[in-house]
Amino acid sequence: MPDLLLELRSEEIPARMQRKAAGDLRKMVTDGLVEAGLTYEGCQEYWTPRRLTLDVRGLTARSKDVREEKRGPSTKAPEQAIQGFLRSAGLSDISQAHVHTDPKKGDFYVAHIVKQGRGAEEIIAELVPAVIRNFPWPKSMRWGGSSGPKGLRYGKLEGRGGETLRWVRPLQSILCTFGPETEEPAVVDFEVDGIRSGNVTYGHRFHAPDAIIVKRFDDYVAKLEAAKVVLDAERRKQIIAHDAKNLAFANGLELVEDEGLLEEVSGLVEWPVVLMGEFEKDYLEIPAEVIRLTIRANQKCFVVRSAEGGEGALANHFMLTSNIVAKDGGKEIVHGNGKVVRARLSDALYFWKTDQGDLPDLALLKESAEKFGLDLKKPLDQRMARLDHLNVTFHAKLGTQGQRVERIARLAEEIAPVVGADPALARRAALLAKADLTTEVVGEFPELQGAMGRKYALLQGENPSVAAAIEEHYKPQGPSDRVPTDPVSIAVALADKLDTLVGFWAIDEKPTGSKDPFALRRAALGVIRMLVENGVRLPLAQSFVGHATLSRMIQTMNISAPAGWTADLLSFFHDRLKVYLRDQGARHDLIDAVITPDADDLLLVVRRVEALGKLLDAEDGKNLLAGTKRAANILAAEEKKGTRIADAVSPNLLTDPAEVALFEAVNQAEKKAAQAIQNEDFSAAMVALAALREPVDTFFDKVLVNADDLDVRANRLALLARIRAATGQVADFSKIAG
Q1: Backbone dihedral region of 502: left (phi > 0), alpha (psi from -120 to 50 degrees) or beta?
Q2: Cβ atoms of 653 and 726 closer than 8 Å
Q3: Which of 375, 390, 700, 723 gets the highest tally of CB atoms within 10 A of its CB?
Q4: Which helix (H) or strand (E) holds 392?
Q5: What CATH fold (topology level) applies to the domain 362-576?
Q6: Strand, coil or helix: what is 282?
Q7: 3-state SS class at 606
Q8: Is pTM beyond 0.85 here?
Q9: CATH 1.10.3210 occupies which residues in the chain?
Q10: How does pLDDT run across 370-410, given as a tens digit for each residue?
Q11: Distance CA 568, CA 574 (A)
């Protein structure tokens, strides 16, 4: 079967757009082929900084004929209706139609229409220009006669804007061939705004700028490789990683791997050549994270560490990826990159040293320092005082960053004893947690907030737990991020996230649908993970209502919190907990069976779910579930009918040995389960309930619940109610599937 080769070659495509653009091209082309009635065996997309390529294998040469019936009007319909039917069906005379009979509606006309299949080349020639004109670039450029005096103009893709072609960068050539492997492929001929398709491409713009005539994909890849173009992005990544590691190893160094940077760099070159640069050792006094980000952000280079230097100790070298094989072995390229790296590291060194010195406006910070109990002899304390003094807004309705820090500090103090932390350390850590936001380094590299605060805290002699909490209070920032384990870190992280959640709920700015601009879902998941994974018991509802500092602030700012906001926030936590537990493999029905609207101790909810799951995995648990559900169904039916149910079980009315045994078993199980629940030993509670399995089964086998004697019937229904109540201590069994 024939294969299709398509290449769209342009000027430089931004690296961040390449992978998605190649995927979009694949989807648009293959969807269009299938919609036109063609099928294919496989399709693979490729991309470089200057081209998007598709290799479509096993494409059918022609679409199938399509036969369809078009129903028309009754044979007795007026002439006007019949003529309309003929026009819509493409018939010239009613004799070309068929007459069908409907038993109810009588005879009516039907047109049997055959749409002839089309050749794949014709379909491709129509499809590809449409794909190019409607391609979903996030940003595009248009050029040509109607694009203005300069010929080129950037803009967001909001339609074609006339007939001028829009592309991410000027489109330079289109290669499109089609045909079987055993024959000479044909050029699929079409034109897009003056660019005619052909069988010609071009290699590396410096090393092989001449035209290259290609036939099919294998030929295309081989000729590009000879012309210094590696088509496969994954292979370019492998080359860069392999050569960088080998070059580092040859110089007694070790590459610091960076998958994100590797992805980006592979999109900047068509023929990767790895070179090594160097900078002065004096710059190594800058923290490793700052060096790495400086070199990464400005020059897209990798850093290396000394093989003897230990984890995190960088060497004064960097790895860069060139797009050419330089005649001088890359000396000038390395020299040029080195000049830029040194200049940027010089700035970083200045930022690092400046952050450790006194601020020039210390006299203005005394009031803020006194308010928070800060020591203006310490650089990080100065930065916190400045954050408060500048009145930096956190949110228009929730006050400044300084006000927020005070709330977090008080809440961290309240939480500290619950998580086993020193309240004084928790408050100190919370007061300094946001201080690095005003440092020079974080101003340059916002992603280092927290990490720089920890370093500055250690430099000024803070307790290690305080320093750790400054960095870790942002964690976890996602489902795969690690959870803080130090008690001080837990206290501050919980306080930070609870303040955010309580604040935005109190001003009624909670997530809606897919929109969550303040990352409140992530904050709630972070609270859940810290509580569950650290085994922390924290009644959330009490935290909401007991957030006195927030309550005072709301009153001061005349914020009217919506009615029932605390219950709504607790429900939000329940929803997030369900997502978390499902991701951990828990059954959704078990979660629903355990969670109640007022369940605010999430750790206990999780333990109940775990214990319930273990019970139901055992045979006794499965049978108990069946018996309990049967009891609940009988009760529900009788309650609906208004049947009398005794308020309590009367032992005098128990006549059958099976119901006597069940009554005694329920008494024991109920008592043992209640005691176990009080001790928060949910496994023991489940074991106690599992003992009901046999007497429940025997009861339903031997005893008729709906006895003729109404008192006996009411008593037996009360016994069933006791079963429901006993199991209800741990879960609502009616919500469990099975």
Answers
A1: alpha
A2: no
A3: 723
A4: none
A5: Hypothetical protein af1432 (1.10.3210)
A6: helix
A7: helix
A8: no
A9: 362-576
A10: 999 999 999 999 999 999 999 999 998 888 999 999 999 99
A11: 10
Contacts of 209-216 with CB under 8 Å at 24 or more apart are: 214/5, 214/175, 214/177, 215/177, 215/184, 215/185, 216/3, 216/5, 216/177, 216/179, 216/181, 216/185
pLDDT for res 606 = 92
pLDDT tens-place string over residues 156-175: 433 334 457 889 999 999 99
Determine the 3-state secondary structure of 313 from DSSP: coil
Question: Reading across the β-sheet that carries 166-167, which strands appear in turn?
Answer: 152-155, 140-143, 166-167
Report, at the CATH architecture level, how domain 608-735 is classified. Orthogonal Bundle (1.10)
20: its two tokens = 């998605």
CB 735 within 8 A of CB 661: no
Structure-block tokens of residue 187: 């050029």
Q: Name which of 56, 22, 25, 26 is nearest 39 in CA terms.
A: 56
Structure tokens at 603: 């750790």
Where in the chain is CATH 1.10.730.10?
A: 608-735
Angle at 605 between CA 602 and CA 610, to 5 degrees: 130
> Helices 401-419 and 487-506, interaxial angle, to 10°?
130
- 687/458 Cα distance (integer angstroms): 51
